[in-house]
Amino acid sequence: MKKYVLTENTIEFFGITLYQIKAVRSFGDVGEGELGGWIAKEENLDQSGNAWVSGDARVYGNAWVSGDAWVSGDARVYGNAWVSGDARVYGDARVYGDAWVYGDARVSGDAWVYGDARVYGDARVESSRHIVWFSNVGSENGTLTAFTSKTGEIEVTRGCCFGTIDEFEQKVKTRHSDSKYAEEYLILVEYIRLRFRDVKVTADGDNS
Fold first, then answer.
1. Which Pfam families does this chain map to (predicted)?
2. What is this structure's pTM?
3. Residues 41, 44, 47, 48: what is their CA dihedral angle, to the nearest 10 degrees?
4. What b-and-e string marks burial along 8-31, b requiring 16 or more CB atoms within 10 Å of the CB?
5. In sequence order, what are the residues at sequence separation of 6 or more whose Cβ sits closer than 8 angstroms to the Cβ of residue 108?
6. CA contacts within 13 A on the Cβ side of 130
């Protein structure tokens, strides 16, 4: 059973027609008949779960919003990006490319998350200073992403490895020993610590 439909209200956005959505039944915090944000097609927003797009938020391209995720405010999600779980993307945030935002993550303010970045757990990314990532890293040429958590800690993810920067550093030393991959990772660890020096997390909102 559908939870929303595309209305006849449309806008043109960079040559793409976006449709305002309308809830046809109540679910989560959304009431029947409530108007939402703008999407290009039903494939942008899951018809199951409590996922929703509201305000002036816009989701298009091959982007996918699912689970209990919300995209709101003036946020934009596009490209091949995924927003799922209990994630929230709001404010003037942008999530695009092949980026994934999921779990209890929050991306807000003027933050941009893109490329192959992976943001999850209790991440709190409020600006470009709260996140950094590196592609083609390590023996598998993967992507390493670092971001701030709601407690203000620096958290790092690389493949199945996820934890604080201290935990990540210890795992690198244990797994890679004195190899060139260890040297590569440890240089990035020092850069991440330098980049995030004095960066604070100020908000922990759900929707805006």
1. B_solenoid_ydck
2. 0.91
3. 170
4. eeeeeeeeeebbbbbbeeebeebe
5. 88, 89, 90, 91, 93, 124, 125, 126, 203, 205, 208
6. 27
